[in-house]
Amino acid sequence: MFSLIKPDKTADFEAVLARVKEALGKSSDPKRKAQALSWRVLKGLETGPGGNVVYVWLLDPAVKDEDYGHGSQIRGWRPEVGGRKESGFSRPPTSHLRPPH
Q: What is the CA radius of gyration of the chain?
């Protein structure tokens, strides 16, 4: 999965990712812990369309039947990441994805 982030928002995006990953790792739900273990995000060295920074999400192995879309992650884990809306991420540029079965 790819994320395109405005250059001036990369620090915010990376902070949100760190909080979500931390929340996943601390979750009492085994599926969330498994997601934390298999989830890596890489930052591209070159800019993407519109000068945006490209992030690539690697999910290996993906947890069966779990939604990996940005919106569902932030909405679903919001209580675990501080209970507030994350500024600048209300409409991420990627679709909601589920890993293949």
A: 13
| C-alpha–C-alpha distance, residues 60 and 4, integer Å | 21
Q: CB of 81 within 8 A of CB of 74?
A: yes
Helix ranges (H only) for the chain are 10-26, 30-38, 70-77
Give the length of the chain: 101
Torsion angle, CA of 67/73/79/81, rounded to 10 degrees? 140
Cα 40 from Cα 42, distance rounded (Å): 7
Q: What is the pLDDT of residue 42?
A: 94
- Strand-pairing partners, residue 41, are 57
- Reduced to 3 states (helix: H, G, I; strand: E, B; else coil), residue 96 is coil
- Our measurement of the distance from residue 56's CA atom to the centroid of its chain's CA atoms, rounded to an integer in Å, reads 10
What pLDDT, in 10s, does the model give residues 69-97? 655 555 555 444 444 444 444 444 443 34
